[in-house]
Amino acid sequence: MRDLTTTSYAILGLLSLQPWSAYELAKQMKRSLRFCWPRAESAVYAEPKNLVAHGLATASRQRRGVRSRTVYTITPEGREAFRRWLGEPSAPPELQSEALVRVVFAEQGTKEDLLAALRSLQDHARQLQRAMAERALEYLESGGPFPERLHVIGMAGKFVVDYSRMLDDWARWAEQQLERWPEFGPLPPETATDEFRAVLDTDLDFARQVLGGSG
Questions:
Q1: Between vectors from CA 43 to CA 39 and to CA 46, what angle results, nearest 5°?
Q2: What is the Cα–Cα distance from 96 to 94, expressed in whole angstroms?
Q3: Across all residues in the chain, what is the average pLDDT?
Q4: How far apart are CA 214 and CA 60, in angstroms?
Q5: Predicted pLDDT of residue 215
Q6: What is the C-alpha to C-alpha distance for residues 208 and 215, in angstroms, rounded to an integer?
Q7: How high is the pLDDT of residue 198?
Q8: For residue 57, what are the β-bridge partners?
Q9: What one-character-per-residue DSSP string does 76-128 give?
Q10: pLDDT of residue 149
Q11: By the 8 A CB rule, do 44 and 22 touch?
Q12: Alpha-carbon Rg for the chain in angstroms
């Protein structure tokens, strides 16, 4: 029996909607949570057994023709545990972006390398926007598998849409900044400081406001 994680509670949340097989859980996780909590299918397949070990779900065998499958159902203890978890403080969000790591160390490479990283972010943003647009139209036309939940689905979806726009806008802005640089690679400290001020601009005013006007 392993400790419960956010993935545990995400799957418990799905089980609070209806019973699922491990295959169905993996499919639904990919459909509904991949934008905010992407996880490998192997982790999704393993977690229901952990919930059973904790007494938060039960497992039963069901036959479909010549095949059988294990279906997981939430227990009353599971519903109570999930409600408690929903009322607890959330962990702070964590940003994970390989492209941004490349930006952080861009002066060690070439201008072409940095441009490629920025354009990969733009491509990702457009793919995300397309996926969200397709999902939104699907929900409007069919209601999706849980039409009674569209109001909360829409709230979460709005975040992903805004995030995709921010990615696209920032990557375009960064590309424009790159064209302003007098040269690529490490700069003299004075020049780099001037560029730092120019890049942050109004963000420095915001930083001073956050710190109470100091600095």
A1: 150
A2: 6
A3: 91
A4: 62
A5: 47
A6: 6
A7: 79
A8: 74
A9: HHHHHHHHHHHTSPPPPP----HHHHHHHTGGGS-HHHHHHHHHHHHHHHHHH
A10: 93
A11: yes
A12: 23
What pTM was computed for the model? 0.82
- With contact defined as beta carbons under 8 Å apart, do 72 and 21 qualify? yes
What does the DSSP assignment read for 115-163? HHHHHHHHHHHHHHHHHHHHHHHHHHHH--S-GGGHHHHHHHHHHHHHH
Instruction: Tell me the C-alpha distance between 41 and 22, whole Å.
Output: 10
Secondary element (H or E) of residue 194 = helix 189-200
Q: Are 28 and 43 in contact (CB under 8 A)?
A: no
Contacts of 56 (CB under 8 A, 6+ apart): 12, 74, 75, 77, 78, 81, 82
Quote the pLDDT of residue 58: 98
Written as six digits, the tokens of 98 are: 């390989």
d(CA 205, CA 214): 10
- Rounded Cα gap, residues 45 and 109, in angstroms: 41
Candidates 124, 197, 201, 214; CA nearest to 165 is 124
24: which 2 tokens?
């169905």
Say if residues 91 and 6 touch (Cβ distance below 8 Å). Answer: yes
For residue 27, the number of C-alpha atoms closer than 13 Å in the C-beta half-sphere is 6
Ranges of residues in the chain whose predicted pLDDT is under 50: 215
